[in-house]
Structures are given as structure tokens and as C-alpha cells.
Amino acid sequence: MHDQKTKDRVVAIDMIRGIAIFGVVLFHLVWDLAFLGMIPAPWVSSPLWIAFGRTLAGTFMVLVGISFALAARNKILARPFLRRMGVITAAALAITVVTRLTFPEAYVYFGILHAIVVATLVCAVLIRARPLFVIVLGITIVFIGNAVEISAFDPRHLAWIGFAADPPFSNDFVPVFPWVGLSLIGLGAGRIIEARSWFAFLAVPCVPLRTTLVFAGRWSLTIYLLHQPILLAILVPLSWIVGRA
After folding, report:
1. 205: alpha, beta or left, given left = phi > 0 and alpha = psi -120 to 50?
2. Does residue 3 carry a pLDDT above 60?
3. Residue 137 · residue 104 · CB < 8 Å
């Protein structure tokens, strides 16, 4: 989640991020179609579809840590870091406000962007810690987040931590426990891979869609913010036409 010179980027990481953001667009497309009654609603509540969505979220959280490890190869400048953090934080707050107005019963009070903000800050604190310690800490956070349920954490002002037994429903809920643990695993693994120069083995040949995936990976935040308004602007009128046919 940091500004990097193009030559310092790992193409394979950008491609993975690009695949993930296209997956997010597909996930939300299907959700929108179900919401508008254009496909059966049970499709988006099936275990396989939910697992697909969680896999996408997990991919982005792991990539937060790996990206931070790559950024740490060079000195992390405070101004670009704070500017990037400001953009993501503003985007997260904007999503909360917009969804609060449009889906008041299921608004996003702590979604993927909120989790990325916290994960990035935690990675910044632990960037010089031993990689193995960071990985073990990440695994511990994932385990605790999946194992501990305490009803006292159910209110929204505490549910974001991740221990809620019955958290308020949200269209996108990515609490600190367990999801930030995935970023720490990515950070520790990324630092080990970088220390051994293994990123050099991730060179990607000129495969089909390489340019498209790399572009999408590098502009994933913009795509994430814009794709839903664009999808809805197309699908809502289409649903009216279909409904009248």
C-alpha cells in the first residue's frame, strides 16, 4: 500500500492483485443482480459463493503485508506513506457514509478498506520485527479471531475488533481479528522471500491478459471505488426494462 517506483514492483504481485480485483467486480455483479431480482437470491448466499468472497478478501489482506515488505526494500518516506494512508482512510469513510445512506440496515461500518488501514499501520509498527515472529503472530491472530466469540463485543463500536458472537449485519465485514493476521503472515513471508531474493523467480512471461491484469492490479483501489456505481448505473435501468418486458 505504498508508492513504489515501477522498476521496483513485482509484476506477479500486481497480476495477483489484478485477478483479485476482477474477482471482486464479478462478486459484486452477481450480488447486484440478486439484489435487483434479476437472478435467484439464494445464489449469493450459497456456501461456495461466500467462500469465494472471503478468499478474495483474504487475498487482498495477504497482499497488504507482501506489498509492505516490498516497499521496505527502500526507505519508506513519511509523506507518500501518509498521503496513501489518507486516501485509503478517506475512501473507507466514504464507503461507510454512502452505504449508511443507501443500506442503513446493512451499512459497511468496518469493511475491507477499514481493515487495510489497520493492517497497514500494524505492518508499519512491526516492519523491523523478526519475520518468523511476525508470521507466528499473524497465525495467532487468525486462530484467536476464529476461535473466540464474546457477546459483549456484539455492538458495532466493538464488533470491528473481531470477537463478536453475533455482529450487526453488514454488506462487507472484515474485522481486525482474524483478517489483519493474514497481512502479518504476508509481511513476514514477504520479508523472508525478499531476503533470499526469491522474488526474482516470480518473473512473468508475456502471457495473455498480462498487461490488463497488471494495470488492474496497480489501479485496484480506483477500480474498487468506481466499479459499484458503474455497475448499478447500468443494471438498475436494465432491471426496469426487464421488469416491464
Report:
1. beta
2. no
3. no
* Whole-number CA gyration radius for the chain: 19
The confidence score (pLDDT) of residue 1 equals 39
Q: Rounded CA gap, 175 and 180, in Å?
A: 8
Distances (CA, A) of 147 to 54, 133, 186: 17, 21, 21
pLDDT tens-digit readout, 159-203: 999 999 999 999 999 999 999 999 999 999 999 988 887 666 666
Give the residue carrying C-alpha cell 449469493: 44
Instruction: Flag whether the pTM goes above 0.70.
Output: yes
Other Cβ atoms closer than 10 A to 229 = 10
Q: How far is the C-alpha of 68 from the C-alpha of 213, rounded, in Å?
A: 20
pLDDT averaged over the chain?
A: 91
Q: List, in order, residues 6 or more apart from 219 with CB less than 8 Å away.
A: none
**Distant-in-sequence, close-in-space partners of 147: CB < 8 Å, separation ≥ 6:** none
Residues 169 and 156: their CA atoms lie apart, in Å, by 10
Q: What is the mean pLDDT of residues 52-56?
A: 97
CA–CA distances in Å: residue 226 to residues 14, 47, 148, 162: 19, 27, 35, 28
Cα(73)–Cα(115) distance, integer angstroms:
24
Joined grid coordinates for residue 145: 479471531
